[in-house]
Amino acid sequence: MSGTSSDSRPQGREPVPHGERAKAVGHIVFNLALLGIAVMMFVHAGGLPSSAWEPIGSGSFPRLMLALLALLSVLMIIKEAAKLRHTSALPSGSVGDWVWRHRLAFGVLGLFTLYAIAMPLVGFRWATLPFVLACQVLLGARRPRQLAIAAAIALFMSVGLDALFRHVFTISLPRGALL
Predict the structure, then answer these.
(1) How far does CA 132 lie from the centroid of its chain?
(2) Using CA atoms, how far apart are residues 54 and 79, in angstroms rounded to an integer?
(3) I need a surface site. Which of 111, 132, 151, 178 has the fewest CB within 10 A?
(4) Which residues contact 176 (CB under 8 A, 6 or more apart)?
């Protein structure tokens, strides 16, 4: 043999120390957050107005899907907690390194949170335009041509989709309480 390993990782990339424990902890934290969101939405789905055409109620299907999501999150937490027993503790600084490696995902999540807060206030059109544009800038649109394309996409996603839903599907997207 020539001394090369049969490892399938690309050359120059070393394995992350204690990577299995970090993955397990990340999966547990993510699924705990997902479980909390599912439970909160499950409670709110019970308050959806009922319809004369749906005998089981308009909240039944969302509640079924959210209960399934909660169950899968619990199962994933149990599975990942079992992995923790077979791994060693994380070295100091590894959480900061993990957060830095995933900074774009956290940035998009933060932008989405702002979008969800802005939607009921300013409506679909005026919340979507800056959200889509900011996401594209965050993910790499920096040059004038890229920014022009990003602006065109953001404009289409906000005004175009609003017009499509309003005039073709006859579905009104949120208008916003402030506008």
Answers:
(1) 14
(2) 38
(3) 178
(4) 119, 120, 121, 122, 123, 124, 126, 127
- Position 114: which residue type? L
The answer to whether position 77 is within a domain reads yes
Coil/strand/helix, residue 114: helix
**Rounded to an integer, what distance in angstroms lies between the CA atom of residue 114 and that of residue 138?**
14
Task: Quickly tell me which residue has 């989405």 as its tokens.
Answer: 112
Average pLDDT, integer, range 138-166: 95
Of 36, 68, 96, the one marking the end of a domain is 96
Report which residue type is found at 108. V
Containing domain of residue 132, as a range? 102-168
Q: Give residue-wise pLDDT tens across range 98-119.
A: 788 889 999 999 999 999 999 9
Q: 89 and 106 in one domain?
A: no
